[in-house]
Specification:
212 residues; alpha/beta; 37% helix
């Protein structure tokens, strides 16, 4: 089944440093894709960083880049800070509380944006806000990288993803796997075009959108 969002809050309890098991399964595959996506140098903004495990791992793998993790949740920001403290990496900035649906992001310029496993556990308006905000802070040809489960006519939707979609909608009617054609249409309205999608572990896709 496609990776579910972040950590199990009930299992995590009051522990500040959260753990998302999916991170261990997908992080190396994500790194392999990002090697051909990220610039040699610059600031990389991660939206919806969750536990912070991806941000720390990517900072280690791309030492010439500077990473800015962010999340709308203060609980997540505390977890990110805890992972950073233990990792002792120098090319990652303190986490910031950032809600994509709020206009006027506190980060006003970035060389690429990463957003892993957000679209399906947020309302459609969050995806719209993501592209709107990305358009404001990215330069031409800069990448907006998305990772997660999607429904696509390009591939057969796995039964596990169909079940996952149903479970998400049962939890919140505004959640659910997004159709790739809808994402592409949204991207086009905000001046982005997608490169060929890349199949990833657990029936996920990597989507690379470039600003026109």
């Amino acid at each position: 089944m496609a990776d579910s969002y972040a950590w199990d809050s009930k299992a995590a309890g009051a522990v500040v440093k959260k753990h998302a098991p999916a991170t261990l399964r997908n992080r190396d595959a994500i790194v392999d894709v990002l090697k051909d996506v990220l610039p040699d140098r610059g600031l990389i903004l991660e939206i919806a960083s969750g536990s912070g495990e991806h941000a720390v791992y990517l900072a280690r793998k791309f030492p010439r880049l500077q990473f800015q993790p962010s999340d709308r949740s203060m609980e997540a920001c505390r977890s990110i800070a805890a992972w950073m403290g233990d990792a002792n990496v120098s090319n990652i900035l303190p986490p910031i509380q950032l809600d994509v649906m709020q206009d006027g992001w506190s980060v006003t310029e970035a060389d690429a944006i990463l957003c892993i496993n957000m679209a399906h556990i947020a309302p459609w308006a969050a995806s719209e806000a993501l592209f709107r905000g990305a358009r404001a802070i990215l330069q031409k040809r800069a990448a907006l990288f998305l990772y997660g489960p999607y429904i696509s006519s390009e591939t057969i939707t796995a039964p596990s993803n169909i079940a996952f979609d149903q479970s998400l909608k049962a939890r919140n009617p505004e959640w659910g796997l997004r159709d790739l054609a809808d994402m592409d249409g949204l991207a086009g309205r905000y001046g982005f075009a997608r490169e060929p999608s890349i199949e990833m572990p657990a029936n996920n896709l990597a989507l690379i959108y470039r600003k026109n």
